[in-house]
Specification:
125 residues, alpha+beta, five-stranded antiparallel beta sheet, 4 helices, 5 strands, globular
């Protein structure tokens, strides 16, 4: 399997990395707007088969799962935080959220025309 990555920026400047590694394991992490230097390293690591088992993964983090479910469905009292979310469930699909980078180890494409200030600070130095 070929590892794939996608980076999105929402209209609030939030930067989220969505990825699938070569083993098919899904990974998502938000908050790169606060640590702009780390996103390219994380993208490189995922595409080059680094061990990501100890990374913060929003798909498996019980607090993030609960937060996600509350955001989508209002306040939910009984959320199963033991079942990981899928990338499809977690991904921000609002029309104001833009893909600013995507690809695999053979081709990465940046979309600077879609980037806000946070995206530019991550990818354009």
């Amino acid at each position: 399997m070929n590892a794939k990555v996608k980076v999105k920026e929402n209209n609030g400047g939030g930067i989220t990395l969505y990825a699938t590694d070569i083993y098919g394991q899904e990974f998502a992490h938000a908050g790169y707007e606060y640590n702009t230097e780390s996103i390219m390293k994380d993208v490189f690591d995922i595409l080059n088969d680094a061990d990501t088992s100890d990374w913060d993964n929003d798909l498996t983090n019980p607090e993030m799962i609960k937060l996600y479910c509350e955001r989508m469905d209002g306040i939910i009292v009984d959320v199963d935080t033991t079942r990981p979310l899928t990338l499809e469930e977690y991904e921000d699909t609002l029309p104001t959220t833009k893909i600013i980078m995507e690809g695999d180890r053979y081709k990465l494409v940046l979309y600077p025309e879609k980037m806000g200030l946070a995206g530019e600070s991550c990818f354009i130095k």
